[in-house]
User: Fold this.
Amino acid sequence: MRALVTGGAGFVGQWLQEHLRQCGDEVAAPDADVTDPAALGQALVAAAPDAVYHLAAITNVGESWGEPQRTFEVNAVGTLNLLEAARSLPSVPTVLLVCSAEVYGQVGPDDLPLTEASPLRPVSPYAASKVAAEFLGLQAHLAHHLPVIRVRAFNHIGPGQAPTFVVSSLARQVAEADIRGGGVVKVGNLSPQRDFTDVRDVVRAYRLLVERGVPGEVYNVCSGQAVAIEEIARYLLERAPGDVRLEVDPQRVRPVEVPVLRGDPQRLVAVTGWQREHSLHDTLDDVLAGWHRELAASERR
Assistant:
């Protein structure tokens, strides 16, 4: 299978490329700006893909509050550009649109677990941009018969993730404090609960959906379990033998926080047979070990 990955240089994109190649796929990951229709179109023509994995996006929820217009330009208009380029190809590819569970927004206990039929109530500019991107994909499928499969990915974590994301940030700070023999780990709101899945399991789900998913449908990619950020922070702190403590940093507290996100992966499982292969604790250990290696390498340079 010939695959094209947008956002291939990113955290998930790198893991996805590795997985696709292990599966025997021919992979192109052009450095094309999704807000540049001409460049994006040329990249798709050159690759002539059987499948497009659209990962390119501004992905940080917190940063979207400061740059809502830029977030929409990349996430929504960029998706529109991608869809237009894909449907103009002589042989149209299957397009996997990677959207986000943030589209579900504020939910209560009675709303959980979230299924694909749950209402969309975005509370951040990022989430609103992802709703727009997702429905542009649905429109392209309904109006132009482009085989679009939509994914609502819940939180995914793993080695190599940028420290702008909460788990990676916590792990990096714990590793730094461990090296120093103690210190402070700055945190935001620790009460939110999130449904975390290892990135290596996530990218397996993406390829399975391209193979077996139904065009026009939407699928949750999640573990089905919610864990509080505080529980993750405490687990990581237990792996630092020195005097390491948590300290709330007001700059890390978001204007609006979704208390709990927990998804139902049953539609994904029923169509693809997907199952998790990495436990949360194993993933956290890998993330922490990755930061220890990177920090040690930095000290040697």
Observations:
- The chain has a mean pLDDT of 93.
